[in-house]
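Tutorial handout. Part one gives the primary structure; part two gives the three-dimensional structure as tokens.
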Amino acid sequence: MQLRRRETDLWLHVGLFSLYLGTFSVFGFARRLDPSLGSAAQLGLLLLTWLLVLYAVWRSRRLPMWGVVLLALLPYAHMVWFTATGESTAGAFSYVYKFSGFLIAPYLWLWARNRDEGQIERTLMVLATVAAARAVLTFAVPGLAPGAGKFADDFIVYEWVGPLPRIFYPGMALVFLGLTVSLRNIFQTSDRALPLEVARALLFLTALCVNMSRGMLILAVLVVTLLVLLKFSSGAVAAGRKGRLVLGALLALSGTALVVVATPLADTVANAAAGFGGQERFSLDQKNLDWRAQQVSAAFRLVQTPEAQWLGVGTNTFIPESLENPRLGEVTNELHYSYDSVRWTFGTLGLILLITFTMAQPLARTLLLRPATPLVLPALLTGAFIGLVGLYTVVFTTTDWSFALTVCGAYLHARCDARRVLPAPARPRRAVPALNGPARRFPA
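Part two.
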């Protein structure tokens, strides 16, 4: 019976969390059936989110992660203000949906607080594995991607880079979390389970690569390198395991190089590499970053009052998608530099709430209380990865990235709270010889 309950809980939360992560493209599929059905599905998600928040408050008798909830309420405040003043509410509903990944924070804390490490890891790894497999499959068979009616939770071919499709898909942050967990397991799992973990890590790595985001890959390599260095410096990992991993990696690299150089495959690889010459995706060309900086500069020209600086220009403010060739109807109310996007839309107040309660607070509490649980390091590194990626691309104003950041913070808060309520260790007692009779023990 207990096993059945755990399995039910696992698949229930896989289905629930997939709505925020876009793992099964529920909203994109609904919109292609009928646009009104897609809108109704989004509204249903918002109602479900509020029910989960109220349930978490009722169960915990408080509002966990209230700072993140305040951040999530900013789009609602804008919508209420626009309605009261008669301003346009265009774009307001989209932000209410995008910030649902923040709003669900209290329930994520309750979920992490009441589940053991194995259940949490299994749930997140199932979601990460499905997202990674779908991304790789879409790359291998581009015809599976929807041709029209694309939505934020769809797995799509964004563009073609030479003969290769560039895949945009939701849940990339969770795929990165899956990669860090698999790498951690490689250092500590049994030799029998090692091939499975290596295969899973390669799946996650391939899924990150098919997006072909140069900055994201560079940051992923840096964070993963930090993880590997931490594991190699840890005394908890046996020296023999470290040696076998290094030897295996060197043999794999040497074998691959030998096959490529010493077989007819060398000509095929050389011809394929020549076909990518001059491709922006495989260079350090700055044009894309310059365009994003120009977008930020143009957007902040609209910030002209102290109120706009502190509270933002609002979710109903749009700028052209392309500043060089603006087209009618092609506008956006978010910027590619995600920190600047939050500051532009919600002002300095929104940026302070974002940095303080989704990143700084979980990090500070973890460093202070040091909960010794297996997922702490992957959660910290994933949060750091999301924070770094937000420096140059859209992150905090998308549901899947905001949910991934929130679930990492909720896990860290839950483990810190569990550590705070642990009973204090018993004080040692010393023996004091009695004048007449056996020795008596008093607190030290």
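Part three, for discussion. The first helix runs from residue 2 to 21. The mean pLDDT is 86.
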